[in-house]
Amino acid sequence: MTSTQTNPTTPGAAGALGETTLLRFATAGSVDDGKSTLVGRLLHDSKSVLTDQLEAVERASAGRGQDGPDLALLTDGLRAEREQGITIDVAYRYFATPRRRFILADTPGHVQYTRNMVTGASTAELTVVLVDARNGVVEQTRRHAAIAALLRVPHVVLAVNKMDLVGYAEPVFAAIAEEFTAYATELGVPEVTAIPISALTGDNVVEPSSVMDWYGGPTVLEHLETVPVSHDLAHCHARLPVQYVIRPQTAEHPDYRGYAGQIAAGSFRVGEAVTVLPSGRTSVIAGIDLLGAPVGEAWTAQSVTVLLADDIDVSRGDLIVPTEDAPATTQDVEATVCHVADQPLTVGHRVLLKHGTRTVKAIVKDIPSRLTLDDLSLHPHPGTLVANDIGRVKIRTAEPLPADSYADSRRTGSFILIDPGDGTTLTAGMVGESFAAPEPVRGDADEDGWDF
What radius of gyration do the chain's Cα atoms show? Predict the structure, then answer.
């Protein structure tokens, strides 16, 4: 008997879920902009902090000689973070209001932890970029806006913090909002919502401010509760990266052969014609097992086992896709990347490219350009990317790769480059994304046998 479930991303189910939809969002800001305080205030004023958590923060604050609770301690959980007063790692927090559930990724603001901001924002549908009203838009602000644009985050909130330290002056807020919005628009950010706040006093975080009556927009929480949630992955091209081949070979299931993995995007149904890439072999889905029970259809983020009608060669790293919607395979990958390692990335660099569950050898054939964040100009053919650089790369892989454009699917259009010697993650890449870089020049052939 086939069990049935309701896809929570369908229009009918959205109505059933009503006000309990899920929003994934990330926060970003420069050091000392008050980002952790904003997150702490958001959790505290929305009554999402347990009593024992608040008591622990109060004790820690008192031990540091502070008069009241330091709400930043609600998110700065590492000892080094508390000692230095900065955020180092991504802190995930889960909370809910009567209108919506939230997964919050509080990301570091220091330039040396840009890699963590990339991680936290990679699955976000909204990013809150914090700016100190006294300092305005700085280089790290521009870096965060560029990363949000590269990662195709559909909604960006500019939270102009510490308005209490500039006398709640509207002209200060207006100038910062205008500068940031113009910059973000040039980057291609589709939507910017600017909100003047004071995280320390709570103005416009959860409750409207009584001292900024010139502002008539939503508070931070009100905007988070009402911003449209797209769930775009459910409507992307259906993709299932194979993680494991299941062959129990028991008396009860002598011929069972299933292909297990988490659906990266879209949905699959029994009877659907599919293609296995990169081999190109075709078959039909004969069954889908979910949590040990057969289902007729499965969708994004569900971990399933797919059974095919034909006994074909499928292994870990292969990609199962609908035959009528199969991506092209290629050994030449052009992408925009954010370099996250201390070790530079250079032309001719031999790397491992991990795409979904597939890892292949690759060579960096060219670095056509590096983005200058100050004015969005492109430095042509720099030859090298260092930590936190954003640039264009051209990569040649040893085996064909079935990669989507990042604009079509954030999950199957992304990859990472890995050092083959020590396993260090070097670079996060987005296939096809571009800042209108000049045409790349093909690098010379590699002399060490990695010229694919």
Answer: 24
Query: Are 24 and 122 found together in one domain?
Result: yes
Q: How many CB atoms lie within 10 A of CB 249?
A: 9
Map tokens 């042509």 to a residue: 380
Q: What is the mean pLDDT of the chain?
A: 83
Helix spans in 188-238 (H): 220-226
pLDDT above 80 for 90: no
Identify whether the C-beta of residue 238 lies closer than 8 Å to the C-beta of residue 321: yes
E strand residue ranges, 210-263: 240-241, 244-246, 258-262
| Residue-wise pLDDT tens digits, 229-268 | 865 566 678 999 999 999 887 777 778 899 999 999 899 9
Containing domain of residue 34, as a range? 11-229
Is residue 434 very low, low, confident or very high in pLDDT (cuts 50, 70, 90)?
low
The span from the CA of 424 to the CA of 343, in Å, is: 9
Q: Does residue 266 lie within any of the structural domains?
A: yes
Q: What is the CATH number of the domain that holds 37?
A: 3.40.50.300
Q: Is the dihedral of CA 406, 407, 410, 412 positive or negative?
A: negative
Tell me how crowded residue 388 is: count the other CB atoms within 10 A of its CB.
21
Geometric angle at alpha carbon 243, from 237 and 249, rounded to 5°: 125
Instruction: Report the number of distinct structural domains present in the chain.
Output: 3
